[in-house]
Amino acid sequence: MQELGKFLSALEAGLAAFGLSLPPGAQEKMGRHFALLSLWGRRSSLTAIRGAEEAAILHYLDSLAPLAHLPPPEGPCIDVGSGAGFPGVPLALALPEVEFVLLEATRKKVEFLRRVIEEISLPNCRAVWGRAEEYGKIAGYRESFAWVVARAVAPLRELAEYTLPFVRLGGVFLAYKGPRGEAELAEAVRALSLLGGEVAEVWQYFLPGGERRQLLVVRKVSPTPALYPRRPGLARKRPLG
Prior knowledge:
With 241 residues, the protein is of the alpha/beta class. Helix content is 40%, strand content 21%. It has 9 helices and 7 strands. The protein has helices at residues 2-18, 26-41, 52-64, 88-94, 107-120, 132-135, 156-163, 181-194, 234-237, and strands spanning 77-80, 100-104, 125-129, 145-151, 167-177, 197-206, 212-220. Strands 3-2-1-4-5-7-6 form a 7-stranded mixed β-sheet, with helices on both faces. Helix 1 (2-18) crosses helix 2 (26-41), helix 1 (2-18) packs parallel to helix 3 and helix 2 runs antiparallel to helix 4 (88-94). It starts with a helix and ends with a helix. The mean pLDDT is 93.
């Protein structure tokens, strides 16, 4: 109970600093997600962050950061490599009218996500077990999402191949990055262009405590060639660019 109180206090202070307000009950549900994460984390390696205040800032507030800068998405969203539900779960709680898909390749993590969706009641969210390289070619997923988000998944040159095939024309891919974001972007310019993306903006922000973060906003300006994504493993072994 004490840890939950610390979590909620840190989250509320961070939201105020960002000028964000959430729908009724959303913060409480984030607290329940954190409690489940803490419980499952004793058995599974879901996250390296254990402290309540640290989790509130580095996981939840960071996941919500785009809402302090961008208008809400006009259509469904997909979180590629969702892991324990970041950024997808906090975003789905903040945007209850938007459909979210949490795509994750590790079955144990998908089981956790499905438990979270059921226990905290997230009707606008579903967890899917599979690889981005496979789902990025399936009708109903390929070029079907207004926002594609990814956090702590892979370097941008590799990540672009996992994510841009999901973005519909005019939609955006949002890559959450740390201080190396601009360096990764410089390495990925050719890959982004090849996959139909164009850098719209690099937004820098600071989390409470001073950590510098960057949100890379990549707009989909042309269809992704049918060749991409390549078969599983190739994006990591032979990244584009």
